Amino acid sequence: MLTFSESEYLNRQSAFLDELPENSLVLIPTNPKSVRSNDTHYPFRANSYMLYLCGWSESDSVWMASNSEGPWKTSLFVLPRDTKAEIWEGRRAGPEGAAENWPVDSAYSVDDLDKEITPLIECSNHIFYISGINPKIDSLLDDSVKEVADPKPYLDALRVIKSDAEIELMRKSAELASQAHILAMRAGGPGVGEWHLQSVIESCFTSNRAQWAYPSIVGGGENAAILHYNSNHDPVGDGDLVLIDAGCEVEGYASDITRTWPVNGSFTDAQREIYELVLKSQIAAIEACQSGARWMAFHDAASRVIAQGLIDLGILDCTLDEAIGNPLEFDGPYRNYFMHGTGHFLGLDVHDVGGGRQGDEDPGPELRPGMIITVEPGLYFGSWRTDVEIPERYAGIGVRIEDDVLITENGPVVLTSSCPKEISAMEAIIGQEG
Ligand SMILES: [Mn+2]
Question: Which of 155, 300, 336, 416 could anchor a disulfide with 388, C-beta 3.0 to 4.6 Å?
Fold first, then answer.
């Protein structure tokens, strides 16, 4: 079943193909299944470029477009019908089903891949291909003398601006994840298992026909200061904060929310000081998400609030400029406690395409209407750390607050706004199950 209307996909395909020269061949493979253990596979999730172009979600397939013989013609190469395999692995649409119900001109069995594409490789002047996914095409192109170009920059430029239909779906994804976080807050209490909160969140996803977009992070106490903690196997002690970074995927589209709250329902003074600072910086960063702003503007806004706050709390003993460091690199000592980027693009991939990743040389794109990003500053004071001095008052605290934000002509729209983040709103519902 297609997620969007056929015309939505055809519009995406022509927007992409219109950018390419005459006599081109485009090959977009989706990934094969991958083994989890022995003969058991991970649940399959199709490559996002394949989903974007035609919504095809079976494994081992290839989307192809060629204009070597006139106007663009599109095809899908898919696993053929095979009753015996389908008894074990599930139904396949096969080439017949793909040609009839998916937005392509024709469809073939993947068994015919060699035969169909070899002559096209030979007669095309330009080949656009995402390598490293399909070994058969990799070796065909290795054997040819043709130069191969990467189609991803063309596709990424399209994917980074969401259509109205995509925005609608991402609103649903953000809303479902918001409700899941509220249920987790309600299930809080001293000694609650990280695993239990994980199950509350993920049960909400599953019961709404969604799934997690990335392994849920549920870190209580010191575990909140481990950025990608996801073993989720410790109980959360009375008086500890729990940091939950969990989002779902709805029809392929991700949400990504983080909330941090005390399992016993009330913040200590020290926790409150850090939480209020992160919240203030997050609100300032969201406010900086204006159409036309440079990519770094919201990181700049979050960083300045955090750095000034660390000075005011006596954690840093320097000027604001010294705390920030090089104004282009943001490499000052505030980074000891806020060591990640302030956000990333969100879409079919949880860390979506479009650039702007921390560590990229490219300064990143300007913010434009239709982009969806996360805004997620944090502060981390793991007491076990030996790389930096951890102030005693704040030792063991980790706080991150993350929302999903749509850029519009009229300013930022927070898609995850139904999930509370103000202290009083969270304290009112923590542990209030039912
Ligand atoms: Mn994120």
Answer: 336
